[in-house]
Amino acid sequence: MGHPVLRRVADPVADPTDPEIQRLVLDMAETLEDAAGAGLAAPQVHMSSRIILFIVPAARATHENEEDRPRGLQVLINPEIEPVGDETVPGWEGCLSIPGIRGIVPRHVHIRYRGLDLHGNPVEREARGFHARVVQHEMDHLDGILYLDRMPDLSLLTFNEEVRYFPDDLSELAFRRGDAK
């Protein structure tokens, strides 16, 4: 947090098959693995390019439907996103660019996204659950938005070690705080 590239709109990628882009994606994949993260956007490695990488670990997927099943490393170049419906849900988010803390962020429950893969082939999917959350989080990085900007209540920001003191049911927390719909 603090690097100017994190606060600007990232530039589109002209050619996903360009060797420089291929190297950048490989470097990002290594960074994501080394950090044991679930997602990474090019601005987080100080590159203003519209590229995101993410995984949906089995432990975070609901397995209820195709839209939130475990997924290995996914690469999206020049991604676009649209909500499917208006429903949002609060959930914990952390970020490799803001280490050591988490906050409760409302995100759309159901989204549709599209972009290109590393070979320039179109990708289009719908996502729910953690899958939807990680895509929305990484997409925000491409538009200069940090999860802190999405938090309606900064009193719900905490150190990772303190998360255990919050209730498991975040809807109950929102209800007690008067934020529930």
| Average pLDDT figure | 90
Report the CATH C-level class: Alpha Beta
Order of helices and strands: HEEEEEEEHHEH
Amino-to-carboxy terminus distance: 32 Å
**Order of strands side by side in the largest beta sheet?**
1-2-3-6-7
Shape: globular
Number of helices: 4
- CATH domain fold name: Peptide Deformylase
User: What CATH architecture would you give?
Assistant: Alpha-Beta Complex
Radius of gyration based on Cα positions: 16 Å
Number of strands: 8
Structural class computed from helices and strand pairing: alpha+beta
Poorly predicted sequence stretches spanning 5 or more consecutive residues: none
CATH homologous superfamily label? Peptide deformylase
Q: How big a fraction of the residues is strand?
A: 25-35%
Give the proportion of residues in helices: 10-25%
- What is the domain tally? 1
Query: Largest beta sheet, briefly?
Result: 5 strands, antiparallel
List keywords for this structure.
hydrolase, 8 strands, 32% strand, 181 residues, three-stranded antiparallel sheet, Peptide_deformylase_sf, five-stranded antiparallel sheet, alpha+beta, globular, Peptide Deformylase, Peptide_deformylase
Can you walk through the features of this model?
- Its cofactor is Fe(2+).
- It comes from Skermanella aerolata.
- The protein is α+β, with helices and mostly antiparallel strands.
- The chain is 24% helix and 32% strand.
- It has one domain (4-177): Peptide deformylase (Peptide Deformylase, Alpha-Beta Complex), CATH 3.90.45.10.
- The chain contains 4 helices and 8 strands; from the N terminus they run αβββββββααβα.
- The longest helix is centred in the N-terminal third of the chain and has 17 residues, at 19-35.
- It is globular, with a radius of gyration of 16 Å.
- The model has no long low-confidence stretch (mean pLDDT 90).
